[in-house]
Design goal:
single chain; 233 residues; alpha+beta; Jelly Rolls; three-stranded antiparallel beta sheet; 29% strand; globular
Length: 233
Amino acid sequence: MDGIARLQLLSRDECREVRAVIVGLRSHWQSRSPEFPFFTLGAASYLDAPEERLRYLVKARELNPLLSQHFGWLYRRLAEALSDHFRARVAFPDELALPGYHIYLSHPVFERPIASIHCDTQYRLHEWAGATPDDFRAAMSFTLSIALPKCGAGLRVWPIHYYEIAGETLDTLLRRAGNSPPDYFPYEPGQLFLHSGHRVHQAAPARGLIDGDERITLQGHALSCQGNWMLYW
């Protein structure tokens, strides 16, 4: 489960359909930076839960009905694809946020490696009755590309595992990453990119953005719990 998987989920026309709905919901986007155009649609554990989990839960309760109303068919397709992939039942925990959207509009800052170098351990922010240590070790993350810049987009992944660096400082992690070149995995519109969030990774900087470029992706995580895979953000 520590590798990379790609699942074709949407056609180009379906990507355009989803993008149009996201743009139509712009009043529900949340700005995540005062300096550049980075937004989310939905509650995100890594942004909303660390300071106050209750705030995340309230936001999830407010936004999940909106997301279900407009993207229910997409969540059903996502669940079916991952159920086939995992060969197990897939569910969305009622109290946690549905997978939501990262939205980056064109800006020169996104041509720099400003994204954090990290591992995904969002599951540590939530309660999972019956989950075992093996379940946590097998946690997965996924990205579904909806709209990408003309120059492309992707993920940098280092050959460094979370359990190798647990307890180390951020400076140590950055030094180790600097001494080990990452692999680059390009995204494709409509393709679900599934990976172990436990491998050190970073959203790759763009190369040659132009006016009107967008990077819109559906983001989420998957954790096995008592034989069922739980999808959330």
